[in-house]
Design brief:
Shape: elongated
Number of strands: 25
Structural class: alpha+beta
CATH superfamily of the largest domain: DNA Polymerase III, subunit A, domain 2
Radius of gyration: 25 Å
CATH architecture of the largest domain: Roll
CATH class of the largest domain: Alpha Beta
Number of helices: 6
Helix content: 10-25%
CATH topology of the largest domain: DNA Polymerase III, Chain A, domain 2
Strand content: 35-45%
Largest sheet: 8 strands, antiparallel
Distance between the termini: 58 Å
Length: 390
């Protein structure tokens, strides 16, 4: 997709002009664009227009698509054949449903007042839109603001590995629902914690100007970026920061979000440095065993017991009213026997988010912090607190 986003003027989206928009666009191109921006719509917002996508024909060959819920805004540009320049907002969910069900090929759009007529082959739909005048203004950050250009691939991997351990959005400690992104010269560190576990990844990046930046970004925002990153073709993205905002920019996608302010826990100080007990486990085997055993887990506690003994790992779960389950796998372990329990969901998330064949489980006692790390050179640490066995 070519960039129309780069041509936005005055660092903001201004919806002062409207017209009877008409254009034609390839289904796949439009569908991809809609999938990118619809993640920022607010289906339950107080303002109905926040559930809509703003379609703006910027010239004869380009459409800009916008969505915002105020906390998160996403903009992308797509190629189109525009007959009449104009703009309108259309319901995101309904528009996606229609476009995804149409046959491949060219789709025609024609606006009459606030009704958009969509045609493809013998299919025809009329959707009632909301005037672009009601769509909120989106302020963009400029190149004069703090800018860092970094490699996209390590950013994506770092978010995948270390962004999942943040607290849920409804957490009482709102700051723990954020993810630390710390860029220092050629090292990107990403970390998150919910108080029961901690995930930290460090990646080597190309940082042309050796700039430093440290932010706390809402976990939800980074997870959305992870999903739309598959539509970004470039090797690098630019980060801009100003006041309480961050903007992530590629050639065809702009993402703007609030950032969080406050003192994040000094998580690196929480990671133990020595462990008397270490077990090497195969990732695919322990995932399969955990998924089998968890069928009998107590849903209130999600506890699975792990018994490490003589190159074997026994996994056990029980629910008083339902029964129990047990499984075992071969591991590499020669330390003294230890019985330790965890919320199995915490371990499954770790194992599923790390691209490693084998992992090392590092333990002290059955009540002290356990650390999991890949059995390779990757700089990744996952700390999880055990659950007391009763």
């Amino acid at each position: 997709m070519e960039s129309g986003v780069m041509e936005l003027e005055n660092n903001s989206v201004n919806n002062s002009s409207t017209g009877d928009l008409s254009f034609q666009v390839e289904k796949e191109i439009l569908l991809n664009g809609l999938k990118i921006v619809e993640r920022a719509t607010a289906q339950k917002g107080l303002q109905p227009v926040l559930a809509n996508i703003l379609i703006d024909a910027v010239d004869k060959n380009k459409l800009n698509l916008y969505a915002t819920d105020f906390d998160l805004s996403i903009i992308t540009s797509i190629e189109a054949q525009v007959s009449n320049i104009g703009k309108i907002t259309l319901p995101a969910k309904k528009l996606l449903d229609i476009v995804s069900r149409l046959n491949d090929g060219i789709i025609s759009f024609e606006l009459n007042s606030n009704i958009m007529t969509i045609k493809s082959g013998k299919s025809k739909f009329d959707i009632i839109g909301i005037s672009a005048m009601e769509f909120p203004k989106i302020d963009l950050l400029s190149e004069e603001d703090n800018e860092v250009e970094i490699d996209l691939k390590p950013l994506i991997i770092g978010i995948k590995e270390a962004g999942f351990a943040a607290a849920s959005y409804e957490s009482n400690n709102n700051l723990l629902s954020g993810v630390v992104c710390d860029i220092n010269k050629n090292v990107l560190e990403i970390a998150s914690t919910d108080g029961n576990r901690l995930s930290r990844a460090r990646k080597i990046i190309t940082n042309k100007d050796d700039k430093s930046i440290k932010l706390i970004v809402p976990a939800k925002v980074l997870q959305e970026f992870l999903k739309i990153s598959y539509f970004i073709d470039e090797d690098t993205v630019k980060l801009y920061t100003k006041n309480n905002k961050i903007m992530i920019k590629s050639e065809n996608v702009i993402m703007i979000s609030n950032i969080m302010n406050g003192q994040y826990p000094q998580y690196n100080q929480l990671i133990p440095q020595t462990f008397p007990k270490e077990a090497k486990v195969n990732v695919s085997k322990i995932i399969s065993a955990l998924e089998r055993v968890s069928t009998m887990v107590n849903e209130k506690t999600s506890i699975v017991k792990f018994n490490f003994v003589d190159n074997r790992l026994y996994l056990m779960a029980d629910t008083p009213e339902s029964g129990n389950s047990q499984d075992e796998i071969d591991i590499s372990y020669s330390g003294e026997e230890i019985l330790i329990a965890f919320n199995y969901r915490y371990l499954l998330e770790c194992f599923k988010n790390i691209d490693a064949e084998d992992m090392i489980i590092c333990m002290n006692t059955n009540l002290s912090a356990t650390v999991i790390k890949p059995d390779n050179d990757e700089d990744f640490i996952y700390l999880v607190m055990p659950v007391q066995i009763r």
